[in-house]
């Protein structure tokens, strides 16, 4: 199982620190957060992609995944007018273009909050139209579209393995796949391992991080309430061979380098104990 460094927590540091640290600390790849100041898709398209690709080459550290910021201001394809939805779709299509140019294998999207007045029918109609359009574009570009369920603290639209199964029933494409961030199932009393059982070959990626009940906080692996050593043992026994990004986000933004080092150290130790 390959381990990735997520760059969101480094947004107060130079982008080069992410590549330097991923190399120094023993990560296998980078999952690149697409927000300013580092890798906002319009900035990449305006010329920043050249500097990014130089970093990839310099540190021999691939960007396997690109995760454009689109759950809040100014983009959320699940809420607002049709013009706002179309604007978000165009932004994510540009993001797919940039993912291709950086050599990424996948781009990650997550349907965010649809607003308190949206019905299930309205939510699924808007989500299906949007993700079908993005999937068709991903097929043309040649980059997989990974869809991530969120916690109920973040979204009322897309929160479970069953939501992924319903999406795949509506949109049939090898370029549309799913993933599991382990915090959403944990805080909803859903089984993490059920994602692997239910999704089968559509289970493409993971976000590995610890958590606590009653919050969507992403905590240092091994320092929360998820039984992490046992989780790694189960993943090993199951035969999971996909990617797993250690998704430290804004809770560790003050010292991302210290915590990125600790996270991969903790996880490597638990993997070794599980026989990886």
From TrEMBL:
E.C. code: 5.1.3.-
InterPro entries: IolE/XylAMocC-like (IPR050312), Xyl_isomerase-like_sf (IPR036237), Xyl_isomerase-like_TIM-brl (IPR013022)
Pfam family, any one: AP_endonuc_2
Organism encoding this protein: Caproicibacter fermentans
UniProtKB keywords: Isomerase
Gene name in the database record: frlC_1
Ribosomal protein among keywords: no
Protein name as catalogued: Fructoselysine 3-epimerase
One function term, GO molecular function aspect: isomerase activity
Membrane-traversing stretches: none
Xylose isomerase-like TIM barrel domain ranges (all copies): 21-255
């Amino acid at each position: 199982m390959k381990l990735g460094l997520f760059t969101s927590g480094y947004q107060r540091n130079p982008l080069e620190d992410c590549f330097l640290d991923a190399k120094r600390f023993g990560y296998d790849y980078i999952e690149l957060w697409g927000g300013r100041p580092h890798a906002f898709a319009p900035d990449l398209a305006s010329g920043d992609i050249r500097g990014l690709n130089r970093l990839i080459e310099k540190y021999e550290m691939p960007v396997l995944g690109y995760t454009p910021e689109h759950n809040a201001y100014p983009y959320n394809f699940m809420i607002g007018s049709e013009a706002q939805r179309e604007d978000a779709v165009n932004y994510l299509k540009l993001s797919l273009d940039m993912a291709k140019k950086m050599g990424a294998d996948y781009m990650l999207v997550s349907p965010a909050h649809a607003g308190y007045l949206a019905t299930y029918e309205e939510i699924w109609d808007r989500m299906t139209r949007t993700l079908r359009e993005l999937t068709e574009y991903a097929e043309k570009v040649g980059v997989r579209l990974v869809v991530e369920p969120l916690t109920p603290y973040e979204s009322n639209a897309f929160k479970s393995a069953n939501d992924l199964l319903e999406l795949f029933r509506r949109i049939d494409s090898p370029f549309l796949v799913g993933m599991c961030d382990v915090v959403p199932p944990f805080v909803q009393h859903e089984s993490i391992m059920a994602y692997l059982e239910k999704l089968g070959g559509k289970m493409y990626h993971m976000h590995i991080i610890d958590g606590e009940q009653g919050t969507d906080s992403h905590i240092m692996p091994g320092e929360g309430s998820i039984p992490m050593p046992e989780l790694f043992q189960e993943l090993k026994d199951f035969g999971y061979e996909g990617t797993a990004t250690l998704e430290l986000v804004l809770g560790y933004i003050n010292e991302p380098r210290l915590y990125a080092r600790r996270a991969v150290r903790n996880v490597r130790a638990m993997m070794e104990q599980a026989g990886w």
